[in-house]
Amino acid sequence: MDEPTTGLDERSFRQSWERIMELRERRGLTVLLPTHRADEAERCDRVAVVDGGRVIAEDDPETLRRRVSGDVLTIEAAEPEALAAELSQRFEVPARVVDGRVMLEREQGHALIPRLVESLPAGRIDSLSMHRPTLADVFVTLTGRSLGDDAGPEERAGEGS
């Protein structure tokens, strides 16, 4: 099945997955499902992360999520590149810009949030959120880009030259 839920509304999405799971259980089927939707991949027993046509990781969703070290903090700011550089230096935590937002991975991210906010001048951060890792975060960690970014390894190799 090649991206069977693309373009479906939420109700149709749920119904499609109910049917897939029913067929899988009743007939003992193995379903191979290419998808760009992390929420869809979360429903699978095994996930292969593909980048540039190559499998770069393969495991069950929970094991893959453990590749992200801790909580994921997302910061929106007017100057994300400058903020990422400053946070990396000041807090000794790798910060990168993905889709115009600063992303940090940190064990016990909740403890870092007050330090981040207090250390920066008022208005420097537009928003800050934290969540547990998802498969979309795993993709970012493994590739350095978001699922919506179509640039493969070959295109990224030429960046900056």
Structural summary, described in words:
The protein has 161 residues and is α+β, with helices and mostly antiparallel strands. It has two domains: 55 residues, no CATH class; 62 residues, Alpha-Beta Plaits (2-Layer Sandwich), CATH 3.30.70. Helix content is 40%, strand content 20%. It has a four-stranded antiparallel β-sheet. Strands 1-2 form a two-stranded antiparallel sheet. The longest helix has 18 residues. It is elongated. The N and C termini lie far apart (39 Å).
Helix-strand blueprint:
Blueprint: H1 10-27, H2 38-41, E1 47-51, E2 54-59, H3 61-65, E3 71-76, H4 80-91, E4 95-98, E5 101-106, H5 109-119, E6 127-131, H6 135-143, H7 153-157
CATH class of the largest domain: Alpha Beta
Helix proportion: 25-40%
**Termini, distance in Å?**
39 Å
Cα radius of gyration in angstroms: 18 Å
Q: Please, what is the average pLDDT? A: 86
Give the topology string: H per helix, E per strand: HHEEHEHEEHEHH
Strand residues, percent: 15-25%
Give the tags.
about 160 residues; alpha+beta; Alpha-Beta Plaits; four-stranded antiparallel beta sheet; 6 strands; disordered C terminus
Task: Quickly describe the structure.
With 161 residues, the protein is α+β, with helices and mostly antiparallel strands.
